[in-house]
Amino acid sequence: MLVNIGNAVKKFFPNPSLELVYFEAIANAIDAGATQIDINIDIRELSLPDTLKIEIKDNGCGFNDDRFKKFNQLLSADENNRKGIGRLVYLRYFQEIEFTSYFGKMQRQFLFTSAFDGQKNDDIIENERNGTIIRFSNYSMSKIGKGNYIDPKYLANEIRLHFYPTFLQSKKDDKELIIRIRLSHGGESSLLDVESFFETVSTSDFPTFTEKEIQIPGFNSLFPFTLKYHIKTQQNDKFLLTFAAIDDRTVNLDLVSLSNIPAGCHIIFILEGMALQGKSNSSRLELDMTPAESKALKKSLLQEIHEILEKEIPEITKINNEKVADIENKYPHLNGYFDVSEVGLLNTSCVLENAQKKFFQDQKDILEATDLSDEQFERSMAQSSRILAEYILYRTKIIEKLRIVDKAKNEAYIHNLIVPQRKEFKAENIRNDIYLNNAWILDDKFMNYQTILSEQEIGKLYQHLDIEGSNADDSRPDIAIILSNDVKSDRKIDVVIVELKKVGLKLAKKEEVISQLKQRARLLLEHYPDKIQRIWFYAVIDLDKEFIRSMKEDSYAELYSTGKMYYKEHSVIVGDNLDDGPKIPMGIFVMDYDALIDDAKMRNTCFLNLLKSGFKTPIVETEIQEH
Q1: 116: number of CA atoms within 13 Å, CB side?
Q2: What gap in Å lies between CA 292 and CA 376, rounded to an integer?
Q3: For the whole prediction, is pTM greater than 0.70?
Q4: Residues of the chain with pLDDT > 70: what percent?
Q5: DSSP state of 619
Q6: Contacts by 64-69 with C-beta closer than 8 Å and gap 24+?
Q7: pLDDT in tens, 288-328
Q8: Which of 243, 176, 186, 184 is nearest to 209 (CA)?
Q9: How far apart are CA 530 and CA 487, in angstroms?
Q10: I need a labelling partner for 105 at 20 to 30 A (CA). Which of 21, 349, 371, 507 fits?
Q11: Rounded CA separation 6/11 (Å)
Q12: 2 vs 493: CA distance, rounded Å
């Protein structure tokens, strides 16, 4: 063989699996016309890989001169649907592969190694016979990998799947093809980790298929495809296969998610066609197509499968409708981008990914347009609404996290969900911070902030208010918000202070919270009386009966809320003149966590429902450029 075999092995089979050794030997035997193939596996135990030996015997035509010549020439094959490199996988696992082949009255022997140069030994035998025996020895890997690779039951199932087209053709031609798999061992059977020691695969194992001729855009219409399918219902677990028949073997397309199939359904789809020949990679396990070809094939095949399943399994229509409703409810900003024929077949992540690609492509088209037409303008408005809906969906997730958290134990977790502790947010960075800062949970108007300080010393707030040299208070408000476009302007500003208190405080501690808020207001107004027009305080705390009594006695008014919320406007005296000094109003809201979370949920749901109502129009699919 006139190539560096060692390099070729690594190039064509960088990540193989041991089962490829069986597949290649079986494929060569079938090419040689074999109808009986025996696989004999011998190993002492799984932990002793160097004891592994495999013998594969067939009754094919043998390595005659023509077939032996092609074996010596890498990349030489009988037909266009053969790669001519499969035998190299042998050398990924075994250092020596001994061939003994019979054709007519000739016996031919040769040893295939990485140093193979085409040498052989021919002998004349007395009686005519045909067939080949391949013996694999000197296993070169440090371990087998897993017991499946020597387990006859596992191998039988994989062989059925891999050679499905071959067995179906044999059945159609009324020819028997049988493969027998045996496992022998010289040690304890419990050390082998296998389910059986003998299995067979034959044409009688395979069902009868219904056939449908289909056309796939992008492929030559003179050579239509054939979609074969077998569907039956029974009491056993559900079963699903979707693959392409390429070069007499199967390539798994993995198009349909098993989770979307009703219980008890056994479903097999096989796509065949001349256009598929040669369209698998060197390992014959994956498609080897252009992105455009692969996309067109899978899209058309999904549509055909969708129609067949809805016809053959009426129950699946109901399941699909439920899945469509569910995914549209969870991702309303992508409504109109979902391909309904995909929803009931692909897993949700694939459907979502495909819809997002279309969504992003529309965004790209609009952003790159130099002059928007009326149609593009309408699309740009729709895109803006969808982006907003995506943000509202994020808010829904935050609300759900707050709803399920243990309020008595996770004060810091709640704080970080609203605004991360020890962080500072500025208006000019809102685009980058929009998914970090959730001050909207308190009130949506607070997202119109100039600055938000989370668990920062009050002195930091003074600095942002342009107050110099004040160290009167070194406490840390949980959240401080400045509502103004420019604190240096003549326009007065509003300040919001939020305190989050853990559940379970005693009454005296709860009453102390209100007193602390008032003291904080006096300090702020003392330093900055001409710039602060109003201070708003929020205390989020559990409201038990005794604390509610205390607030009502202090003239707190109950506000409308899905939880419990009370409000009172206090007057803070600025300066030393306690009788006639200026009084500045400060409002204190006291609410429980239910009010905080459920009110935010109510506002958010209102926004989301309004946006959902505009997303029912199907989107005309745009072509997504493949790379």
Answers
A1: 27
A2: 26
A3: no
A4: 84
A5: P
A6: 64/103, 64/106, 67/32, 68/108, 68/110, 68/120
A7: 888 888 888 888 888 898 889 888 888 887 877 788 788 87
A8: 243
A9: 12
A10: 21
A11: 9
A12: 85
What does the alpha-carbon distance between residue 537 and residue 430 come to, in Å, rounded to a whole number? 23
Domains of the chain, CATH where assigned: 5-205 (3.30.565), 210-313 (no CATH), 407-591 (no CATH)
Q: Identify the CA nearest to 114 among candidates 93, 134, 135.
A: 93
3-class DSSP assignment, residue 570: strand
SS (H, E, C) 192-246: CCCCCCEEEEEHHHCCCCEEEEECCCCCCCCCCEEEEEEEEECCCCCEEEEEEEE
CB atoms within 10 A of CB 87: 21
Average pLDDT in the 416-436 region? Answer: 91
Residue 589 CA to residue 569 CA, distance in Å, equals 9
CA proximity to 242, closest of 228, 223, 232: 228
Alpha helices (runs of H) in 405-506, residue ranges in sequence order: 411-418, 430-433, 458-464
The predicted structure's pLDDT at residue 480: 93
Is residue 354 a contact partner of residue 336, using CB atoms and an 8 Å limit? no
Helix (H) or strand (E) holding 544: none
Beta bridge partners of residue 210, listed in sequence order? 229
- List the end-to-end C-alpha distance of the chain, in Å, as a whole number: 37
Q: What angle do CA 289, 295, 301 make, to 5 degrees?
A: 105
**Number of other residues whose CB lies within 10 A of the CB of residue 241:** 19
User: What is the 8-class DSSP label of residue 256?
Assistant: S
545: confidence class by pLDDT, cuts 50, 70, 90: very high
Residue 101: which residues within 8 A CB-CB, separation 6 or more?
Answer: 62, 63, 107, 108, 109, 131, 132, 133
For residue 590, give the 3-state DSSP assignment: strand
CB of 539 closer than 8 Å to CB of 520: no
Cα–Cα distance, 272 to 294 (Å, whole number): 14
Q: What is the spatial distance between Cα 334 and Cα 343, in angstroms, rounded to a whole number?
A: 13
Token pair in block for residue 163:
């050679």
185 near 45, Cβ under 8 Å? yes
Sheet holding 451-454, edge to edge: 424-426, 451-454, 479-483, 493-500, 532-540, 583-591, 565-573, 557-558
Bridge partners (DSSP) of residue 244 are: 251, 271
Mean pLDDT of 475-496: 80
Contacts of 447 (CB under 8 A, 6+ apart): 430, 437, 439, 440
Return the ∠ at Cα 499 (arms to 494 and 505), rounded to 5°.
150
For 47, other C-beta atoms within 10 Å of its C-beta total: 13
Q: Is the Cβ–Cβ distance between 255 and 242 less than 8 Å?
A: yes
Supply 271's token pair: 């796509």
Q: What is residue 29's predicted lDDT score, i.e. its pLDDT?
A: 95
Residue 342 Cα distances to 103, 302, 337, angstroms: 53, 7, 11
Which of residues 550 and 357 earns the better pLDDT score?
A: 550
More confident residue, 102 or 248: 102
